[in-house]
Amino acid sequence: MRLFCAMSMLLLSSVSVLAQTSTAIGESSARLSLGRPTFSDIRQYNALDFAGSPVGLFETESVTVSAAVNLRYLRWHDHNHVADALQKSTAWNLPDLLVGKPQVFYARLNYTPAFIADEASFAPRQVSMFLHRFGLSLAGQAPKGVFQIGLHGDGYFTEEDLAGSDNTRLIMGLRDLSATIGTRLHELVGIGMRGGVSAQLDSLRDRVAPANHDRYFEGQIPRLAWFADVGKPGFPVQSDFAIGIAKSRFVYVTDPGGGDQDPIRGDSLFWKWQVLGDFAGSGMRYRPALYLGYWRNNYQAYAPTPDNDDLSVGAKRDGRNWTISDFRFGIGGSVLVLRYATAYWEYAHSVMGLTYGATWPGPRDKKTGYDRIALSAEGNLRAITALHLPPSIEAFVRLGYFNQRENSGINAFGADEFGLVNQVDVGTQIDRDAPDFGWGRDQRVIGFTVGLGASFLNKALSANLHWAFLGRSGATQRSGFAFGADVGYALRHGR
């Protein structure tokens, strides 16, 4: 199909993770994966961390050069299986480089290779891949932020292997390719608009039987979002709001097994809002927080066109439509105790629903509630005078706990690490037009985390470590372990 050739050229010529049609367009599981504070952490109130826009670098950075090397490792083990590790992922950031002039211009570049192995999905055979991830962000602004512009590209490519087979899958995509325009209406208020696309191409390479085909394209073209950021350091209220829409498209061919399958069109909507108070009294600082969010994805199946090679579709399949939605609210906060420690807590509740079209047989609707609790504390070792730390050194210790009940197929724990894993065979997406395709079972994930960190030479050098001990229960009982290490250098403005 000409569509796949055209998309291959687009992806290879772009700055090159996952754009599944059943995933919310405004959320990521990356930060939730280790139970870290989100909406209760004042460091997350900016256009970069909340809305994904590079113009947020002007709110978060004051360096002229910074370079970091990072390592992330995640492993899952099934006690009833002889394998040491059913799933494991090791990712490096080599490096994460930021250069620029504060309040004027920033460029950020990262290359993140990752090795991913998964025997849990297709036991007893293992699939594995060496994933190459690339990211580039550019941001510039006029004096006082009266005009801001940002460009962002985040993509990947890999070849997936199956143990004992010469067959592979070629997988490549763009998680995000977007541009932002914005302005600071006031020192307390910034607004912006972001537009872009996401795309993924997945194709079987059957070297034993080259006539076998299994390939699909999915993407969101276009994706549009608007965001507002209110507040500044020291102001008693911080707030962020974002709303976005997207048009999605899925096209698939598999042979033998049916050839061109029904293409799917969808439209998505999301909005989210978080607000945090900041006030002090009796040597303590209190920061209560609130979060509200909603996303909805509507899908409609169509007949394929004669060549099924572009974004057009044939006749609508009446009644073969469905909607997946999720409403979430959260409350939380933090307390800073006499500069010795900061304690965070968060509770979030999510109601996820699936609504079927008129012609689907079987159960009509699904609705399930999910919960997440996260607790963490960060101790400032420098505040302990008995340690006699020099003024140029800062050090901390962090403890955390999280307990979340989730849908194993949508926005689930580990989706960022293992979401690209696919069957190295034909017919992988043959049930894609079933409304509950991708709707997983309920599962519970629990984790305890420990972290240590320090900065030296007045924050010019930094080093951080964290460990997490995990458990997952549901259809299977598994234990897990995560480890992270970060080393960085920063040259600050004026030094």
Number of domains: 1
Strand segment tally: 20
**Structural class, from secondary structure content?**
mainly beta
Q: Could you report the average pLDDT, rounded to the nearest whole number?
A: 87
Which series of helices and strands comes N to C? Answer: HHHEEEEEEEEEEEEEEEEEHEEE
Radius of gyration: 23 Å
Ends distance:
57 Å
- Main pleated-sheet profile: 18 strands, antiparallel, barrel
Share of helix, binned = under 10%
Number of helices: 4
Classify the beta-strand content into a percent band: over 45%
Shape: globular
Question: Which spans of ≥5 residues are poorly predicted at pLDDT below 50?
Answer: 1-33
Can you tell me about this structure?
- By secondary structure, the chain is mainly beta.
- The chain has one domain (2-392, 400-437).
- It contains four helices and 20 strands.
- The chain has helices spanning 2-13, 47-51, 57-60, 415-418, and strands spanning 63-78, 87-101, 105-118, 127-141, 148-162, 168-186, 189-205, 213-230, 237-255, 259-260, 264-277, 279-281, 284-302, 316-337, 341-356, 365-380, 394-407, 442-456, 461-473, 478-492.
- The chain has an 18-stranded antiparallel barrel.
- A hairpin with a 7-residue loop joins strand 7 and strand 8 (213-230).
- It starts with a helix and ends with a strand.
Which keywords apply here?
single chain; 495 residues; mainly beta; 18-stranded antiparallel barrel; 4 helices
